[in-house]
Structures are given as structure tokens and as C-alpha cells.
Design a protein that fits this description.
Elements (H helix, E strand, L loop, with lengths): L1 H23 L6 H27 L17 H31 L7 E7 L4 H4 L23 E8 L11 E5 L10 H13 L4 E5 L25 E4 L9 H10 L3 E2 L4 E6 L2 E8 L33 E6 L5 H6 L4 E4 L8 E2 L3 E2 L13 E5 L2 E5 L16 E8 L6
Parallel strand pairs: 2-15, 3-4, 4-5, 5-6, 8-9, 9-10, 10-14
Antiparallel strand pairs: 1-2, 3-15, 7-8, 11-12, 13-14
Helix pairs in contact: 1-2, 1-3
Length: 407
């Protein structure tokens, strides 16, 4: 029994400190502070099993057994018991969140979708003009590493206020390219080729394009080749603030991409008006000035009723799913995000553990419904570290439908 309780304590210990790491990476804090704090917190996580082992080998007193003397004379014991209690609560909270996440949050009652997935045929030689464009970091070749195994994920979504004329409209959602040079340019050119072959009506890019100033020059030859009738729109992510942000934004705009950072853009798709907006918080203010309907005012059920800008379909691009609260307050219909990479390493049954979000692993990847907003979080195209297990990169094609159009 004591051994089982010790294991449960270690479980809570690990997830308590990992939870702090996840939330730390969701904050707009200096990069050096996040980096050093992460090392300290992960060191505390790693120290847990060694401390328990040392306790057992040294024959220390069992903290789960009541001491013979009064606790008032055993302050160290009191502190240890208090920390064990914190670990138990953290463990119980982790299990409860996992059950809620898998049993309820992904099973919305008022929104339906279909999910189809296939593996893209990525052949770098087809895209590379020079052999060096096919050179990747050695970690990409490690057994089981899926960092170059791109998935094409097709998701069909019902949107309650989608005009009938927009039935079947498609959005290609790409995020988290992380140009570092560790993954050759050929891979990203193939991502673009596959994306264009899907012939989307609109393309949404949701941040983290380069991790070094030199790789900004890759954009015209990669992202600059994306094309869609409704345009290619982008917002920046937190890693984009670690480099020359102004130059990055200018190069992307010069490559034909449309900047949505901190602004709203009324546009028309298939003759129907919608509002497209970009939220780069918490790293780059301000939030877009997105008009909202009056409290309690019913939303229009067709585009013919949507005469005011506040009554049009609202689609928001944001880097982090942490902005879901803002989206709900502004009655956003669909918010597209990246940032999480799906965790990059996902364990069977457990799923992701490390996740840069204030919500922990709650919004790891996929579709979520938090009325009135549908949230789509993509696993992203790449990452700063080219290591993925049970979590391949993806490009997501979203097909929108009015209610009761999905068979």
C-alpha cells in the first residue's frame, strides 16, 4: 500500500510541476526567464524519483504512517505531509481533467463534424532545386520519429450561422513552420505543394514561421507560393517575436500574404460577407476591434439578414488557443489556432503532457466547442525541435457546412 501511495505521489509531483511549465510557456514573459525557469522546473520533476529512492534506501521513516510524537515537534514531517497532500490533489485534478477532456469536451452536443485523415506523399526531391534543401538534422532520422511524416487532415464542421451560399467552403489551416535550418527547405516546399493541390477557398496561417533571422529569406520561396481564391492570411506567434519581427512581417506581406495582426478585415467569399480577424495576444497587442452583437440579440440565420458588420460570420486567426475566452466574449464563430504542436510526444491513453498553454493539455489539438465558438487547434507543420512521436505534423483542410449538412 505504501508503495502504491508513493507512486501516486510521484505522479502528482510530476504533473504539478509540469503544469507550471505548461502555463509558463503560455505567458508573454522574457524568453530568457522562460528558458531558465523551465530548466529549474523540469529538474524538480526529475528529482522526485531520486528523492523517493534515497528515502527508501536510507530507511527513512514512512511519512504515510502517523508519527509517535506530536506533529508540533515534527515540523519537517508536517511540511512533507503538506507537500504530499498537494501532490495527491494535483494527481486527482489531472485524472479529473483527463476524464472531462476525453469524455465530454470532445463530444459537443450542438456541433457535429467528420474527421478524415490520410498520409501525404512527401517526396522532397520533387520540390528541391538543390541537394542541400533535402538535408535534415540527424534527429529526423531517429527510429519512430514522425517529424517528416506529414498528415493531411480533413475535417467537416457545422457552423450554425453559415450562409447557405457558403456550404462547402474550404479553409486550409497551416501553423508552426519553425524555419530553423534543421529541417530542409524541401520539406516546406512540399507542404506548400500539397496544400495548393487541395485547392482551398481560403488559407489561414497562424504563426511561428522562423526561429532565426536568416530563415526569413525562405518565405518567398515557400509560403509565398501558397495561393487561394479568397486569399492567404496570417498572424504572428510568440517565436516570431524572438527575431526581427518587423522584417518578418514585411517579407510576408511582400510575398503576397495578407496581414491580419490586430485587425479586422471585412471580405466577401462567394458573394457572402464575412469578417476575418487576427489576434496575436498575449505577445503582440492589440486585439482586433471586433464588433459584437447586442447582448441577447439573436444572430442572423442567413446572409440576407446580416446587414450590419456585427452580424456577419466571424472567423478569427490566433496563435494560441488561450485566446478562446476572448473569442467567446466576442461571439466568434470559428477560431483557428496552433502553438501547441499537439504536444509533439503523445503517450497511449494519456496523450500529450507538455503543452505551452494556460489551460494545460485541455486544448491540445483538434476541434472543440465552447459555445458560441468552435475552436480548431492544428498540430502544426514542424517545430523548433524535430522530434515527434505518435503526433505527426499536419495540414488541415476544414470544410464548412450549415447545420444538418454532414452525413
Amino acid at each position: 500500500m505504501t508503495f502504491a501511495l508513493a507512486l501516486y505521489t510521484l505522479f502528482g509531483h510530476a504533473f504539478f510541476w509540469i503544469g507550471l511549465v505548461n502555463r509558463l510557456h503560455g505567458a508573454a514573459l522574457p524568453r530568457w526567464f522562460i528558458t531558465q525557469s523551465t530548466k529549474v522546473l523540469l529538474a524538480i520533476v526529475a528529482a522526485g524519483p531520486f528523492l523517493v529512492l534515497a528515502w527508501l534506501l536510507a530507511g527513512w521513516e514512512n511519512p504515510f504512517v502517523a508519527p509517535d510524537r506530536s506533529l508540533a515537534h515534527r515540523p519537517g514531517h508536517v511540511v512533507l505531509l503538506a507537500y504530499i497532500g498537494v501532490c495527491w490533489l494535483a494527481g486527482a485534478g489531472t485524472i479529473a481533467r483527463w476524464l472531462w477532456h476525453n469524455a465530454y469536451l470532445r463530444r459537443p452536443r450542438k456541433v457535429q463534424w467528420l474527421h478524415r485523415r490520410c498520409r501525404a506523399d512527401i517526396s522532397p526531391a520533387r520540390a528541391a532545386l538543390r541537394p542541400e534543401e533535402c538535408v535534415h538534422h540527424f534527429t529526423a532520422s531517429l527510429p519512430g520519429n514522425q517529424s517528416l511524416q506529414l498528415d493531411v487532415t480533413r475535417r467537416e464542421i457545422e457552423l450554425a450561422w453559415l450562409p447557405a451560399a457558403l456550404d462547402g467552403v474550404t479553409i486550409l489551416h497551416l501553423s508552426d513552420f519553425h524555419f530553423t535550418g534543421k529541417v530542409g527547405k524541401a520539406y516546406f516546399r512540399e507542404v506548400v505543394r500539397v496544400g495548393n493541390e487541395l485547392q482551398p477557398d481560403l488559407i489561414a496561417l497562424t504563426g511561428d514561421y522562423a526561429d532565426g533571422d536568416a530563415c526569413i529569406d525562405w518565405i518567398p520561396d515557400t509560403l509565398g507560393r501558397l495561393s487561394a481564391p479568397g486569399g492567404v492570411y496570417f498572424v504572428l506567434g510568440n517565436h516570431d517575436t524572438f527575431i526581427n519581427t518587423r522584417r518578418l512581417r514585411e517579407v510576408m506581406k511582400a510575398s503576397g500574404l495578407i496581414d491580419l495582426g490586430g485587425r479586422c478585415l471585412p471580405l466577401s467569399i462567394r458573394g457572402e460577407p464575412i469578417i476575418l480577424a487576427g489576434n496575436e495576444l498575449p505577445w503582440i497587442p492589440p486585439a482586433p476591434d471586433l464588433s459584437v452583437s447586442e447582448p441577447g440579440r439573436p444572430r442572423p440565420r442567413s446572409s440576407s439578414e446580416a446587414s450590419a458588420p456585427s452580424e456577419r460570420l466571424r472567423i478569427v486567426l490566433a496563435h494560441t488557443p488561450d485566446q478562446i475566452g476572448w473569442a467567446r466574449c466576442h461571439e466568434v464563430d470559428l477560431m483557428l489556432c496552433g502553438h501547441t504542436h499537439g504536444g509533439q510526444i503523445r503517450f497511449p491513453l494519456v496523450g500529450a503532457i507538455l503543452m505551452p498553454s494556460f489551460h494545460g493539455v485541455k486544448f491540445d489539438c483538434g476541434l472543440f466547442y465552447l459555445p458560441p465558438t468552435i475552436l480548431h487547434v492544428t498540430r502544426g507543420v514542424s517545430g523548433k525541435y524535430s522530434l515527434r512521436w505518435n503526433c505527426p505534423p499536419e495540414i488541415a483542410l476544414l470544410t464548412l457546412h450549415p447545420p444538418k449538412k454532414i452525413c
